[in-house]
Amino acid sequence: PRSLLRPKPVPKSSGALRRKKCEPAVASSLIKKIFSHYAKMPVARDSFQVIEKCSEKYFRQLSNDLEAYSSHAGRKTVEMADLEVLMRRQGLVTDRMPLHVLIERNLPLEYRKLLIPVAMSGNKVIPCK
């Protein structure tokens, strides 16, 4: 009769169920480095936390917009044309300031070579599609 009165043992749950999903984020050191490069003046430490939150919201909105543009076009892949449409809507790319000029002004040479097609000797175009 005592075995009937004992409560059944509750199985222990694994720790994986209790963990929250961790979203990928831009490293705070990278945000600090980029912002301090463009600010050109000292920035207080507590202001970097606000900058991190703002940049996280910005990149989340940016990715949602790019996803909407590509799905509207019936694609599952975001292409450079989607990014150009988004930058036009933000006012960064205009008729006087095309995307290639913006890339040349703001990115280092290694990234420019990857984004802007360049004709090389031997009738080769880099980057090839």
UniProtKB/TrEMBL annotation:
Q: Which GO terms describe its cellular component?
A: kinetochore; nucleus
Q: Which Pfam families match?
A: CENP-T_C (PF15511)
Q: SUPFAM superfamilies in the record, alphabetically?
A: Histone-fold (SSF47113)
On the tree of life, the source organism's domain of life is Eukaryota
Domain CENP-T/Histone H4 histone fold per the UniProt entry, residue ranges = 28-118
In which compartments does the protein localize? Answer: Chromosome; Nucleus
Q: Does the keyword Coiled coil apply?
A: no
Q: Which GO terms describe its molecular function?
A: DNA binding; protein heterodimerization activity
Coiled-coil positions are none
| InterPro entries the UniProt entry points to | CENP-T, CENP-T/H4_C, Histone-fold
**GO terms for biological process, alphabetical:** chromosome segregation; kinetochore assembly; mitotic cell cycle
Q: Which UniProt keywords apply?
A: Chromosome, Nucleus
State which residue ranges cross the membrane.
none
Family, per entry: Belongs to the CENP-T/CNN1 family.
What protein does this entry describe?
CENPT protein
Q: Which organism is it from?
A: Atlantisia rogersi (Inaccessible Island rail)
